[in-house]
Known about the structure:
Elements: E1 32-33, E2 42-47, E3 52-57, E4 61-66, E5 71-77, E6 83-88, E7 94-99, E8 103-108, E9 117-120, E10 126-131, E11 137-142, E12 146-151, E13 156-162, E14 168-173, E15 179-184, E16 189-193, E17 198-202, E18 210-215, E19 221-226, E20 228-229, E21 232-233, E22 236-240, E23 246-251, E24 258-264, E25 273-278, E26 282-287, E27 293-298, E28 305-310, E29 315-320, E30 325-332, E31 343-345, E32 350-357
Parallel strand pairs: 1-32
Antiparallel strand pairs: 2-3, 3-4, 4-5, 6-7, 7-8, 8-9, 10-11, 11-12, 12-13, 14-15, 15-16, 16-17, 18-19, 19-22, 20-21, 22-23, 24-25, 25-26, 26-27, 27-31, 28-29, 29-30, 30-32, 31-32
Amino acid sequence: MGKLQSKFRKRSELYRLSQGEKADNTFDSQVVQYEPAHKGSINSVTNLSPDLCVSGGSDQAVVVYDWKQGQVCQSFQGHNREITKVVCFPGSTWIFSASRDKTVLMWDLNQGDEPIQEFCGHELVVNGLAVSPDGRKLCTGSRDNWMCLWDIESAKCEQRHNISRNLVTHVCWVPGSSSIVQTSEDKTIRVWDSRTWQVINTFPAKQYIQTHCDVSPNGNYLVSSSNGFAGQGCEATLWDLRQPGCKVMEYRGHLQTTACCMFLPTPPGGTARVATSSHDSSIRIWDQNTAVCLGTLFLDGAGPLVSMAPSDSTNLLCASFNTGLHHIQVAQGSNQAPGSGAGLRGTGGLDVKAVACF
């Protein structure tokens, strides 16, 4: 366990320049390689605590990892197909995992290796997973077109609703609200009322499949990401949840599908920011209000970057298909000496650097 004191060359040979970047904006890297969290691709990562993250992938394992120390804390085995999503309930040791085996399992870090609850009822892969702000309800969405609401204590499905062609890609609960937002392969974003289990708002359909969504901590804004290729589509879109269907901003620059989009914690005295990750192996940090790209990081050989989890305003975890989990640091640009980090400085002066992989 722990650090391997060698340069990070086998799993990610070089950090590429984005088109138009100058060579003097790059830095040589000493990226620390830790004990791998998984064998195979990683589909989802989230935070359990300031030091611990939870991830799931093609090896069917749910892994709790101390990303600051670089070691596995716990590995849960219970699914019989790859894991698609993992979420945690803030302030607790609860972990929920969704899988291609059509089930959702609930784990507790303090209650052994076996799942403490199982949620069964979907007919196809479960892609959407969200816990209510009070920790009593679980929302799931699937490619079977069903959105389901579960009582966590009893694992009983209390509400079900089927909408034709609503192949759910992601679900998130609006903070401090009874509303749930979900994206779909039918290119539509829907807002549900968890009390009536009805759709209360539908956003204008986008041109491409909507792959992911996230809601700002104050519950006012939604960001969604789009499928695409060769730079067509591939954007993230900012919406105002207070004005149904109101598109505020688009973030364009990725060349392939934008698989994940997240609101980042705002640094003291700083501006609001959005992060996106893509199948083009890049992470981009955007000014939320102006859509200026503040910084970009390419991870050569990483393959699709499919999930992110911000720990604070400067630390971000990212899951990849080919090279495990990456610890990314986002900091205001400075006149650094070569060898002090790896990354690209955007027009807004941010240094986006990979500092560890596991």
